[in-house]
Every structure is written in structure tokens, then in C-alpha cells.
Amino acid sequence: MKGLSEHYLIVSDPDVCGGKPVLRGTRVPVQYILELWEMGCSIEQIHGEFPSAPKELIEKVIRVLKENSVIKLVI
């Protein structure tokens, strides 16, 4: 999904991870990030598990979900 605005944090593409929502520009499913966060892992620990996901992007996704609990997906 080239050319997306940086406002899109999460994308879903049938050619990437079977269409599961992933962090933009990565193959890291958002589900994994959220599961680790819910288990009490810090952003640094999550980034350590998924170094291909920029720490800033992990922080943004967690912050947006905490504030809104709804994220618009581009499919």
C-alpha cells in the first residue's frame, strides 16, 4: 500500500499476512502488538519482539486505541 498518508497507522492487504490488519509498512499484525500490551509489556519490550515495527508507530497505535478504541482501516 504505497503512497498512504502517515495518518494511516494500520492497513489490511490480502497479499500481506493473509489480510490481517498490520502496522503500516510492516508485516506485524496489530493483534500481536495489542496482546503484548494487554499482558503488560512495555513499548520497548514490544519493539524488541518486533524490531521491524518502528517504536514511534507502536506508540501511536497504542495511544490511538487507548483514546478511541476505533481505528479506520484501509482495505
Structure description:
With 75 residues, the protein is mainly α. It has a single domain, classed as Arc Repressor Mutant, subunit A (Orthogonal Bundle). Helices cover 40% and strands 5% of the residues. The chain has helices at residues 30-38, 43-49, 55-68, and strands spanning 10-11, 22-23. It has a two-stranded antiparallel ribbon. It is globular. It starts with 9 loop residues before the first strand and ends in a 7-residue tail after the last helix. The mean pLDDT is 83.
* Low-confidence parts: none
The global form is: globular
The count of DSSP E runs of length 2 or more, i.e. the number of strands, is 2
The share of residues in extended strands comes to: 5-15%
Rg over alpha carbons: 12 Å
User: Which CATH class?
Assistant: Mainly Alpha
The CATH topology name reads Arc Repressor Mutant, subunit A
The number of helical runs is 3
* CATH H-level superfamily title: Winged helix-like DNA-binding domain superfamily/Winged helix DNA-binding domain
Taking the alpha carbons of the first and last residues, their distance comes to 9 Å
Instruction: Please list the strands of the largest sheet in the order they lie side by side.
Output: 1-2
Which characteristics define this entry?
about 80 residues; mainly alpha; Arc Repressor Mutant, subunit A; two-stranded antiparallel sheet; 3 helices; about 5% strand
